[in-house]
Amino acid sequence: MPTALIADDEDLQRGDLRRLLAQVWPELDIVAECEDGDEALAAIAAHRPDIAFLDIRMPELSGLDVARASEGRCRVVFTTAYDAHAVEAFGVGAQDYLLKPIALDRLTQTVERLRKQLAAGAAMPDLLRMMGEVDRQLRVSAQAERIRWISTNSGNTIKIFPIEEVLFFESDSRYTRVVSATDEGLVRTPIKQLQQGLDPGQFWQIHRGTLVAVRAIARARRDEAGAITVELRDHPEQLKVSQTYAWRFKSDVYVG
């Protein structure tokens, strides 16, 4: 019996997809329903489902993050509210996407494709490379205004940080540190909100509360336990990399 999990931060969306799947693929066993990316990653590790239906926009870890971190453990189908132009990138390889609200006939096509792949024992595509293509195409299609500078307040002092001078952002439950080579300040803007205004090709998320400028990374070191630490070019502080984002530091060539 094929197995699957559904990850979406909206109860109604999860319920709708579950009901539709029951119609078009009644033998599919839904082994887990998850409200966020962290839950989805844990469920993939625990249940090893054949398929993961992942919403792209979820709290903390996005569906893209979960797909990367799962490293080919299951087939991935993205669910998304993006328009058709923005999701053209998902038409590559053996993966698929479903545009919300999900249409029954479109889901039927996806299910037929998945059934054939599972029956044939077809190999899964190189997900990391596919995700790189997804990132590039989404950056091209996104027209959101990028952050150009950050203004921080400390008592009577206002500090201005041009974005090209920021080395990293680090958040706790209340504040986000903005760190350059020579100074730092605090803002109340959370990492998730900052990330929406930053170029994902220039700033990498390496931990739940850490974004680092790629140009600022000198090297990454892995200890005997497999934990990764990032060393910076112009700052003595070292940054921890969570296992979720360890994929960023695999040997590869990055373009664009």
From TrEMBL:
Domain Response regulatory positions: 3-115
Pfam families in alphabetical order: LytTR, Response_reg
Keywords, comma-separated and alphabetical: DNA-binding, Phosphoprotein
Superkingdom, taxonomy of origin: Bacteria
Residues modified as 4-aspartylphosphate: D55
All copies of domain HTH LytTR-type, residue ranges: 150-255
Name used for this protein in its record: Response regulator
Taxonomic lineage of the native organism: Bacteria, Pseudomonadati, Pseudomonadota, Betaproteobacteria, Burkholderiales
